[in-house]
Amino acid sequence: MRKNKKEQKYFEEKIQQSMLSKVNAQKKENDSQKDNQFTLKNEENVAFSEKTKVPHSKISTKTQKDRNRNRQKSIDKNSYLDFDKKSEDESDITQIRNIIFSEKNEKEQESSIYDIIFANLIALAGIMLSAFIPILSFALPILFYIYIEVGLYGFIMQKQLDIKTKFENLFVSLKKYVRVFCVFVIKMILIMFWLCIFIVPGVVCFLNYCFTANILFETDNLDAKGVLILSKELVKGYRATIFLYMGIALASLAVAVTAMFLILMLFDVFFVISPTFYIIFLIVAMMLDFILVALPLVETVIVNCYIDAKKNRIQRKQA
Known about the structure:
Order of helices and strands: HHHHHHHHHH
Largest sheet: none
Number of domains: 2
């Protein structure tokens, strides 16, 4: 009995070995057939490239370039689609809010204006305080302004859309800072380049990139190039209005300074006023007008134009 069992085991092992050898042989045959097919295809491609007198390497590089271009286009399309979806949702929300709150109270308007002024004061205080830090006293105010600009425009936009916001939202997450910094640097290089050529192209370039802060606040997928292109697309038709209100803001500064100068001239008739007091009072008048009138006016106009531009973009796509 033991001998029979041993013989059965021996024969079973032999059968398994033979089966494995057959399977391996079939795999080798399949691999060799695949290799032959691949070599034949390569030979046909080489022959075709020789006939058309185009090197095979050029064909491969062209296909790679086409693939990369298609990938980039698909990424850009997806990011723009995300932006459009967000803007469509926001437009629906704003329409509902306009229906519910069709008649906005004057008190609410005043409170939103005061909030915008207070937000500007926070931003200016941060910029001025950062200037007193040693070693980085020159670079830090610029870096802080780049950081706070996005949050400031986002805060104003939420106020204009009647969305409840806190002053904490002025400080955007630091993850966005690299993208914000890259956009700011490219924007300033382009503006300076066109200003060096002539004043008018520089002003137009500055107006083209007025919406970059709003776009950076709302989107996370767009790169620096996409943000600048989208801002240029959205600002079409709004350059004149933004430029007009910027002119009004500058005019208000001039009016404030001249009014303060005339008041000081009247006081100088009765009292002797030194030139240092003249300079101090003129600077104070200019700063007050800048904080209370000029800056909020320009910011609210840019934000309102951005909201209208988004609505028009959605309407064009739906039509």
